Amino acid sequence: MTATGRRRREAVRRQAAELFEQKIRPLEVAQRLRVSRKSAYRWHQLWRDDGIAALVSRGPSGSRCRLSPRCLDKLVAYLQEGPAAHGWTEDQVWTAARVATLIGRKFHISYSVSGATRLMHRLGFSPQVPVRQVAERDEEAVKVWKEATWAEVKGPGRPAGATSASRTRQASPAGRLGAGPGADADKPRS
């Protein structure tokens, strides 16, 4: 949740506490503040037990970052040096797995790949996914194969008029013009 969202939620809780102090019932508080009845009743219970202090935000939820601000600054510097400076010479891409490994090597703290992804986003980096290609790939052979062999294997495909975009079945030949009842409508009756 953004800081603006947290401030708004805290302001709504303060308003709810003020309304509770005026002896206004939770159902009416929910209607006035446009919140769910469940939230209003829960806030009322908290307010009744511990007062307005119980409705004040305790900050963002979730676990705290396990790296200190000093370590985070060092991590940013390491990331700016690039992967090659830390042993990954195949490509210049910071993947979440590499960042998790780097954190383990440099700070002796274990991070999951998803945790490293969230941390990178928080630091303003985006994890990249490396292109997976076989090391022995021969681009010239692939090009020749596409031009020569693929055209033969693929085949000509269906003719354009044989397909239908309709979800229903195509009409039977008996249902086409000139084949069913009324086909001879242009002939005079005898």
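the 2nd protein, sequnce then structure:
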Amino acid sequence: MNARDRDVEGRARSARPRDGLGRPLPYGAAGVERQPEGVVRSPGETVVEAQRLLDAGMPFHAHEVFEDAWKSGPEEAAPLWRGLAQLAVGLTHSARGNAVGGARLLRRGAAGIKGLDGRPYGVDVPGLVRWAGELAHRVDGGAAVDAAAEAPRLAGRLE
């Protein structure tokens, strides 16, 4: 029996490399660098970093950025970050070919942010809700999903 991989704090954490969609690869394979956990970013930094990862076809990694914001930010911002994390995971599952899980998470994430007022931190909530609904519908219909090609725009033009 092999000992479980552990992080520096002793928590169980697989050391296997992962691909851009977060799937584990064999030990020794070239993978995508993991997102560090527990990084505290400003809301603007969160949006920019997540957009960079989404554009690179790495929605699994973008979800980790949103998760950090959700866990470290103010409670009133949690619904936004949680919903965005669910959208990113929905895109991840859709790109992995898991149509049922992908569509379900896209709809759940959209429902979680739908009622938010305005454009919190510049995030285009109505546009993301529309994007998620359209993608979920296509995924339900059997469409293949390329994560980078389907990456949503989180906000207006990001510099």
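The chain has a mean pLDDT of 89. The CA atoms of residues 2 and 14 lie 12 Å apart.
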